[in-house]
C-alpha cells in the first residue's frame, strides 16, 4: 500500500487531477447551500438579461455598464423628518416648495430599465384644498423635463394631467397613499409619436440618462389655497436593473450563471458517479463470468457485448428514452437516464474485465485453490475480485468522462434533464436561445464547456494514475 501511495503521489497528473476534481466537488457541495433554488423560476432574476460578470468591467467595452442599484435618494437640503424613512414638508398658503434629490450617474444608459418611486400622504386643514405635486428631471447640461403631475381627486391619483384638481370631502377626510413610478408613468409617453410609444421602455432611459453626470430629481409642491399644506412622503427609492452581476453574469432570463454552474456541477457529478459505478458493476459481473468460466458462456457473453458495441449508442439511447417516456413509465427522468446509460455502456468495461480475468484464471494460485477443493464462487471472491480491484477503480474513473459526455449530449439536444441546470442543458439553452446578444454571452457558454472538458480530463488522468500505481511491473 505504501508503494502504491508513493507511486500515485509521485505522478503530477494525479496531483493535478485530484486538485481539479476536489475543486469541482467543493463547488458541488457549496451548491447545497442554495437549498431548493431553481434558476429557471422568474423569482430568481437578479439582474438584466445577459448581464456580464462584474469583474469583466476591467475590459474597455464593459467598464461603464451599470450594476444592480437599489438605494434611497438624499435631498440636497435639510428637510424635517417625519420618521426614519419619511419627510414632513409644510407648504405655506399660495406658495410652492422645491425639493431636489441629486443622482450622480457614472455609467452608460440603463438599457435594462430603472425605477424611481415614493409614497406620499397629503394632510389638509380644510374640506376643500387645491394643491399639486410636479416632478421634474434635470440633465447635467441643465435641460429640465416635466415627468409627472400628481393631483388627488376623489381619493385617486391621476397621471398624465396638466390641470389643477382638488379634494372635495363631505365628512371625514381619510388619508391615502400613492406611489409614483417614473419608469411606468410619465407625460413623455403621451408626448411621444405613435411609432415611439411601443419602444417607450427603451426610449425613456435614453432620454433621462443620455450620459454620465449629475442628474437631479425635483419635487415641486404647489399649494394654491389659503391654508397651509402638509405633505408626508417617503424617501424616493432609485433602482436600476444591472447589466453587470456577480462572478459569471446572468443568462437570458436574468438568473445568475454561477449558481446554474454550481448546481450543474453537482448534478453532473451525481449522474456520472452513479452511472459509472453501475456500468462497472454490470461490466465486472459479465466480464468475470465470461473470462473465468469460458466455453459456451464466454461465447454467449462475448456475442452479446459485440452486439451492443455495434449498435450506435446515442441514437439507441434517444430512441429508448423517448419510447419509455411516451409509454407512461412511472420513473424520474434522472433515474431513467442513469439506467439507460448504464445498460448501453457496460460492454466496453466487460471486455476489459474479461481479458484481465482470463489472465488471472491461468495463474498458479488459482490452480492451487482448485486443488485445495475451493469452489468457483469462493475462488472468484477470494482471488479474482481482489486482483481486479485496481482495474475496476481505474475503469470507474475512465467511465465518468463517457457518462458526462453522453448525458451532456442529451441535455444539449433537449432530450435530457431540463427542469434543473446541468452543464449540458446550459450549453443547449445558450445555443438555442434566439437573441442578438446570445453570440456574445461568453460568460454563459464557456463555464459549462470548460467544466465538461476539465472534469473529463481529470478523471481520465486519474484512471491512468491508478493503472500505473497498481501495475506490478512498476
UniProtKB/TrEMBL annotation:
GO terms of biological process kind: transmembrane transport
Source taxon at top rank: Archaea
Domain ABC transmembrane type-1: 265-463
Membrane topology: Multi-pass membrane protein
Alphabetical keyword list: Membrane, Transmembrane, Transmembrane helix, Transport
Transmembrane segments: 12-32, 271-293, 299-322, 334-353, 441-462
Chief place where the protein resides: membrane
Family: Belongs to the binding-protein-dependent transport system permease family.
The protein's name: Oligopeptide transporter permease
Organism, scientific name: Acidianus hospitalis (strain W1)
Lineage: Archaea, Thermoproteota, Thermoprotei, Sulfolobales, Sulfolobaceae
